Amino acid sequence: MCTLEKRGDLFLLTLTGDGEHRFHPDTIATILSLLEQAKSQSTRGSILITTANGKFFSNGFDLAWAQTAGSITGAANRLHQMVESLKPVVAALLDLPMPTIAALNGHAAAAGLMLALSHDYVFMRKDRGVLYMSEVDIGLSMPDYFSALVRAKIGTSAARRELLLSGKKIRGEEAVGLGIVDSAAYDSEEGVVQASVRLGEKLAAKKWSGEVYASIRKSLYPELCGILGLEARVFATPKL
Amino acid sequence: MCTLEKRGDLFLLTLTGEDEHRFHPDTIASVLSLLEQAKSQSTKGSVLITTGHGKFFSNGFDLAWAQSAGHGAIERMHQMVKSFKPVLAALLDLPMPTIAALNGHAAASGLMFALSHDYVFMRKDRGVLYMSEVDIGLPVPDYFSALVVAKVGSGIARRELLLSGKKLKGEEAVALGIVDSAAHDSAEGVVEATVSLGESLAAKKWNGEVYASIRKSLYPELCRMVNLTANNLATHNL
């Protein structure tokens, strides 16, 4: 389902297997637990890189699991459960005491795209993979923290509209143009991961205090942090 | 330390001397007092241009002064962070357009000072923008982040500014939407460009109270954080 490896300063979180990496409550719980593990093992210079195997980074919540609840109310409850349980994952990423990089091997849709956007840097492929907020097409309303995340990370009205209100499947080049991802320069899964590792190593060499880094990060997103119940703590011993 | 001159409609605020123009409590108090002076003398068509001499616009708070207190260092840092807030507030509240003409490097609170102006011009050939906090291990004051969020639109640009430890040169600063222009290869060139802009804004003969009120309405969260309220009383040119 997902694994956490350590390679020097880099924590590599991988959604394993060739499926759609849909977020079922179990997947969500596993991711959360691995993020907590990375946090507890973090030191100066730690970096997180999140990636996946196969055609998908993640295609969002496990809607099939919701539907097997057997009734409309049951399905709505299960969906609500997944929406609520992903919130701590987004919070954990915003709170993580180290720079975070999402290396998109493939498609990222809905909650899967939100997971990617919760990282400080997002790299995707040039040749394959799209970003897709499917909610408007499926007829699902947007959880408040999803919209808050989009508002926090994406600057222009036009880009926010393209992401949330167009039903478009946005490819790498356009995603860069809209300011949604940092880079879409790679023609393979390996290329994206390598680029993330290079950036990760460069950032790791700064040997930043993770607590300070996380505190500055959170200060950029006060509204989102408020919705997630996160506070920016400012205890630090500066190198004056 | 700093001077205020009047040249026609233009108020010119200069951080004098060839040093780093670090913000010590005394500097901060002087800058605040000169801004209050400009405000009290303002008329329709007034414009403020802020610049510095030498290699630095400003390299931020006087950390050496903080360190010389030994155990009192954190206390002194807090004092500077707190006393700087009214300077930002005064700029946001100033009843005239404001232009920062960066002669050189602007770092940390020095960069925040620049960003508190309506327009920021920097040099193409020299000078960087640098938010040093992540490198030094200092958390960023909440009103600094609020200023960055207010003035810099893209998530990527905000991250590059606050979370990368990068020293941003003119061209990149323009591309990120942090400054308006980095087209000039000398400090004189930057100042001349800002004077030109200043004169064209002055010719509009705008009501400064209205200008300030519209400006503040763009940054409600920031204004709240620096204890400013937008007043919406004005007599229109209808």
Automatic annotation (TrEMBL), chain A:
Pathway: Lipid metabolism; fatty acid beta-oxidation. Its EC number is 5.3.3.8. GO terms for biological process: fatty acid beta-oxidation. It catalyses: a (3Z)-enoyl-CoA = a 4-saturated (2E)-enoyl-CoA; a (3E)-enoyl-CoA = a 4-saturated (2E)-enoyl-CoA. It is an enzyme of class 5 (isomerase). GO terms for cellular component: peroxisome. Keywords: Fatty acid metabolism, Isomerase, Lipid metabolism. Pfam families: ECH_1. The keyword Isomerase applies. The keyword Isomerase applies. One of its GO terms (molecular function) is delta(3)-delta(2)-enoyl-CoA isomerase activity. Belongs to the enoyl-CoA hydratase/isomerase family. This is Delta(3)-Delta(2)-enoyl-CoA isomerase. It comes from Arabidopsis suecica (Swedish thale-cress).
TrEMBL record, chain B:
Signal peptide: none annotated. GO terms for cellular component: peroxisome. It comes from the Eukaryota. Pfam families: ECH_1 (PF00378). GO terms for biological process: fatty acid beta-oxidation. Keywords: Fatty acid metabolism, Isomerase, Lipid metabolism. Its EC number is 5.3.3.8. It catalyses: a (3Z)-enoyl-CoA = a 4-saturated (2E)-enoyl-CoA; a (3E)-enoyl-CoA = a 4-saturated (2E)-enoyl-CoA. GO terms for molecular function: delta(3)-delta(2)-enoyl-CoA isomerase activity. This is Delta(3)-Delta(2)-enoyl-CoA isomerase. Pathway: Lipid metabolism; fatty acid beta-oxidation. Belongs to the enoyl-CoA hydratase/isomerase family. InterPro entries: ClpP/crotonase-like_dom_sf, Enoyl-CoA_hydra/iso.
